[in-house]
Every structure is written in structure tokens, then in C-alpha cells.
Design goal:
single chain; alpha+beta; Phosphorylase Kinase, domain 1; four-stranded antiparallel beta sheet; 3 helices
């Protein structure tokens, strides 16, 4: 491929990048992308109903929800199944402290 051919192939990509850059705000980061709906929202887990996402924490997702037996708001930490084989006893030792 000659330099001229490479430039011709790269021109549309460069134009798209220029247009994208023009759409970004002049100051600050671009707006966040919308997150897909979490499949656990609305799910009942034991006596807890998951109402929404609070934040991501290491190898877990923290949700807020309702303890239906005690009728109070709670934080619910759910560990990703794909990470459980790699998790060790020390990785889970901090859970009681975080729950307090």
C-alpha cells in the first residue's frame, strides 16, 4: 500500500474523529454514557428486594434495597459469580467490617 492509498483510507476516519471532537464540551469530560438497566433491580434475594444500584466495589456490586421483614432500607453487596473461584478467605474477611 502506498502512502497515498493509506492517506485516502485514513481520511474518513480522521473526519469522523474531528466531528466527534467538535461535539465534546470545551471544558471538562464528556457526558457519561447511559448505563444499561441492571437485571437485579426488582429482584428478591432472601428477605431483601433490590431497588437500585448504589456503586461498584471491587469484585462486587453494591445495591440499595429494602429488608421486607424489618421494613428498613439496607445496602446489599452482591459478588460476581465469575470472581468467586479466585476469591479467597481473606478477600471475604472484610465483609463484616464493611457491613457495620
Amino acid at each position: 500500500m502506498t502512502d497515498n492509498q493509506a492517506n485516502e483510507r485514513a481520511a474518513p476516519i480522521a473526519e469522523t474523529m474531528r466531528q466527534t471532537a467538535e461535539q465534546l464540551p470545551a471544558n471538562g469530560p464528556p457526558p457519561p454514557l447511559p448505563l444499561p438497566e441492571d437485571p437485579l433491580i426488582g429482584y428478591r434475594l432472601a428477605n431483601f428486594v433490590i431497588e437500585g444500584v448504589h456503586r461498584r466495589a471491587g469484585m462486587s456490586q453494591v445495591y440499595y434495597g429494602l429488608d421486607i421483614m424489618l421494613q428498613r432500607r439496607v445496602a446489599i453487596k452482591v459478588t460476581e459469580l465469575r470472581l468467586l473461584p479466585a476469591a479467597t478467605k481473606t478477600a471475604f474477611s472484610g465483609f463484616p467490617m464493611m457491613a457495620r
